[in-house]
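Notebook entry, structure prediction.
Reason for the run: the old model in the group folder had no record of what sequence produced it. Starting over properly, with the input documented here first.
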Amino acid sequence: MTQTSSTDTGPSAPYTREPGLRPQSSSQTQLQSQPGNHQNQAPIIQVSGLQKSYKTARGELTLFRDLNLQVDPGEMVAIVGQSGAGKSTLLHILGALDTPSAGTVYCASTNVAQLSPRQAAAFRNREIGYVWQFHYLLPEFTALENVAMPLLARGQQKREALAVAANWLREVGLDDRADHRPGELSGGEQ
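New structure, fully documented this time:
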């Protein structure tokens, strides 16, 4: 993974928060990652000139400016930084939940920064998998039905969606909990 970022920090600069992924000694830094064996494949994530700013009562708040990031298939990447540095905002932008103020964001070869809300929802449903800090399971449905829900939302037949969901539960060792509702699952199982 490669990441670069620069910000204006002089006295005349707009109100700017330090970026979460700061260069240590120059305007470009190489972050540690676990490389995969996918050398001739296009990057899974390609970010160029990314900026995210908000208007606040104190003026404009810039979380990051001119952020460049590339993640290749098979790489394992950690985004770390202080609270409020923009980590969640960056992940929301990469996952088509938010839009940048400027720049391009390619995820799975799609420029998610230019998607309409409807297109972004379809992209998230087909291309992105989220693991939330909170489980967001629907309490009235079983574990199997909760796992099948995104497949049903994209129009897959119920029988096929349930079969795929059962396989996913089997892969993570929860096939024996498929008929349990969220309240009957441990925090880790949820």
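Summary: The chain has two domains: 2-127, 143-184.
The old model has been moved to the deprecated folder.
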